[in-house]
Amino acid sequence: MTTKSSVEQLPDGYLNKTPIFQFILLSCLFALWGVPVSLNDILITQFKTIFNLSDFASALVQSAFYGGYFLIAIPASLIIKKTNYKAGIIIGLAVYVIGCSLFFPASTMATYTMFLAAILAMAFGLSFLETASNTYSSMLGPKKYATLRLNISQNFQPFGAITGVLMGKYLIFQEGASLHSQASKLSGDQLRAFQLEHLQYTLLPYKYIIIVLAIVLVLFILTPYPRCKPVSTENNTVEKVSFGETLSYLIRNKSFRNGIIAQFVYVGMQTAVWSFTIRLALVLGAENERAATNFMLYSFACFFIGKFVANIFMTKFNPKIVLFIYSIIGTILLVYVSFSTNFSAVYAAIITSALMGPCWPTIFANNLEVVDKKYIEIAGAITVMSIVGGAVVPAIQGFVSDHLHSMQHAFMVSAICFAIVGLHFLREYLKKDNTTQLN
User: Fold this and answer.
1) What are the TM regions of this chain, as residue ranges (predicted)?
2) How far is residue 259's CA from residue 372's CA, in Å, rounded to a whole number?
3) Is 15 a domain residue?
4) What does the CA dihedral 40, 43, 45, 51 come to, rounded to 10 degrees?
5) Residue 59 maps to a domain
6) Contact, 319 vs 147, CB < 8 A?
7) 320, 337, 325, 299: which is closest to 419 by C-alpha?
8) Which residues pair with 238 in a beta bridge?
9) Residue 3 falls within a domain, yes or no?
């Protein structure tokens, strides 16, 4: 039950101290799923022109991606429950590689549906990774620092996101006029050749991703990890509960239910804002996709800075009130994005990213804290399932954009979502205590 003699697992599954190398390697996984998350924002812009899609149809990239998370989270948690977190991570990395590999036949078939299938498969692997890694990070050390550890691990994600945007900017997007303006001058075989050429550019980032994944997979296979499974103090065995019992317990847990709703809305809002930032910049005057991509880089830089600053604030003040203030400011900025008449709306969307970072890990860690540890694998999986908000909210925002004929006004969908997240943090802050609430 130990990785070193000085690192011991406690009965509740937490460790007496954090094994540094294992924690850093685990945290690197957060960067690995940050890459495809940001590449999706690139693909939405690329596919919209190549396949001549509406905003709603282009947002189905996110629906396939986060829908994959939703579909596989419970099966992943059951496998992790029967095995361990390390096994879940290894399975996730392997499936992630398979999903990336499917981009190659998709480019040959040149159909939007096949690309969505590849994205869905990749999301299956990422769901395994997140289901295992978020819970594992929170438990890989003393319980009192669980939220801090998860926030530290989440700080790796912006590096992956920035890497994904840079790969998209220099490997997928090309110099010259925007894709839309180039494609509008072509027809017939010329247009078809143009579309096929730019689909091939889509493959380049995934070649490098596969190489990195193979290296990380080998490292995880070779590195020993503690189980971090709660055990019975009477006979030192892992407590076993049925899926039905776990589900019944979680449904009756009011704090957990509220956290799931907040996570669903938060992920949807974050994904929607990022999905349409490049498009917003193009609509408001950016020269081309490569130039517009710079604003995504600024967004992810703000995301990282915001997480870092929030971590400092949350060590000095109640995390829930800090995030309530973040959410209210974010809501105001998104309302400004919706109704501004100039390019400053893009910068407001960028600044909003600085206010998003700490929301996911704080909600996630709180959801784990309010449940009995024998239910923790399923609780973690259901919280990961709430990421399906990323499949729903961007599609709604795309639908609103199509029907209002306004990319900007559709950002009110995200503003409403951020306000709901803020109300969740305020409600949690106003509670007399943070103990499990049962109806």
Assistant:
1) 20-39, 59-80, 87-104, 110-129, 150-172, 206-225, 260-283, 295-314, 321-339, 345-366, 378-400, 406-426
2) 15
3) no
4) -140
5) yes
6) yes
7) 325
8) 231
9) no
- Answer yes or no: is 87 within a domain: yes
Q: Mean pLDDT: which of 77-81, 83-87, 409-413 is highest?
A: 409-413
pLDDT digits (tens, 9 = 90+) for 254-296: 888 888 999 899 999 999 999 899 889 988 988 788 888 899 8
Tokens in use for 87? 């096994």
Q: What is the number of other CB atoms lying within 10 angstroms of the CB of residue 233? A: 9
Q: Are 17 and 141 in contact (CB under 8 A)?
A: yes
Question: H-type helices in 317-407, by residue range?
Answer: 319-339, 344-353, 359-369, 376-385, 389-404
User: Which domain CATH number covers 268?
Assistant: 1.20.1250.20
pLDDT attached to residue 277: 92
Task: Name the β-bridge partners of 253.
Answer: 438
The answer to whether the beta carbons of residues 80 and 92 sit under 8 Å apart is no
Quick one: CA dihedral 51, 56, 58, 61, positive or negative? Answer: negative
Residue 99: burial class (beta carbons within 10 Å; 0-12, 13-18, 19+): buried
**Tokens standing for 190?**
């010329």
Structural domains counted in the chain: 1
Boundaries of domain holding 311: 20-226+241-430
